[in-house]
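Lecture 7 notes: from sequence to structure.
We start with the chain below.
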Amino acid sequence: MSEKQFIDVDFGRVETERMRINMGPQHPSTHGVLRLEVELDGEIVTEVVPHIGYLHRCFEKTCEKMTYPQVIPYIDRMDYIASMNNELPYVMGMEKLLGIKVPERIDLIRMAFVELNRIANHQIAVATFGLDAGAFTPFLYLFRDREMILTLFEKASGGRLLYNYFWVGGLMHDVPPTFKQDCLDIIKTVRKTNEEIMDLLIHNSIFIDRTANVGILPADVGINFGISGPVIRGSGVPYDIRRTEPYLLYDKFDFDVIVGDNQIGVLGDCYNRNMVRMKEMEESCKIVEQIIAQFPDESSDVRALCPRRVKPPKGEIYSKAENPKGELGFYIVSDGSVYPYRMRPRATSFVNLSVLPEISKGYMIADLIMILGSLDIVLGEIDR
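Predicted structure tokens for the same chain:
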């Protein structure tokens, strides 16, 4: 039954009828196969119900039939925009279960690759967010630069999107001979392009009107929903696992945790969430620069500690890391066999999407597109 509402205006009484419409699952602005059931009063959003499950692959149950190394390619396919970052908490958890401590050189390679993948993720996030607002040129610039990162990943792993590069105890292959120079070239290009993006998009008055003071997420609401990553940092909460619970060698590196501010718009709006991603790219560039400065010239056997048969003792572990979208964790239960007894991820996009109905009410349907885009979700991670 539709709900009817009467609004008093100068020229009499106008009868309006609330309408429920579907956005998606085949819709470019839903960033994947997401269906939004939207209730509208005119053009004002009164309710949003996300419907998921269109990309379901039975990830958890499939992993129970795979050996521990065979699980990694399935992890790649969760957040397929940041596959390197997906693999990291899983292999770190397995190495802790097995009592393996990898050499510092492998930690440096892993750090460099996850930070480059963080840049590549944010390039897509900012590019598609600008596209939602009608800006096409920044999309082309950012995708062009992202190709440099994918080319380096291809040199190392053979894959451009799905890598299976981080192995339990080491890496698939050593980095290519051009690794250092490739990283420096990427950093130089990213910084140059980001200056142009700031002028073309971020400081554009139309873009500011579309994003500032829209989709405001108060810090306490974000914390109660378990939100993480740039979404919660855009609300002024300095939660970054690389700082709060350091892993790899992050405690030895100099970088800032970027949070939102009130210079344009207000804390927790779409503009701040996007700005956090823009500034985080620079912090990732700083980290990669520091890695290259201390990276050893001599090569090493990156498979030396990889067990031929991964068979951890009975036990359980929760391992997490700062994915580009927020906290990604894996809860792994071992029964002493070569197969996981249970393996369940804490999917960042799934948690972040849960706040969408809370921050969309009262805005126009055009604003709903921007609010969804500012969350930077990937349905492969939500549905699994």
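Points to note: The domain at 101-302+349-383 is CATH 1.10.645.10 (Cytochrome-c3 Hydrogenase; chain B). The two ends are 34 Å apart (CA to CA).
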